[in-house]
Amino acid sequence: MRNRDHCATGGRGTQQPPPVDPVPDQAKARRLVADGDEALWQAPSVDGRGTCWFTASAASPAPHVGLGAGSCRSNAEPAPTHELVSAGASGDLVTGILRPGTRIAKVTIQGDGWSVDATVANDAFIARVTGERPWQVVAYDAKGNIVSSVKLSG
Question: Which domains does the chain have, with CATH numbers?
Answer without folding.
Answer: 17-74 (no CATH), 84-152 (2.60.40.760)
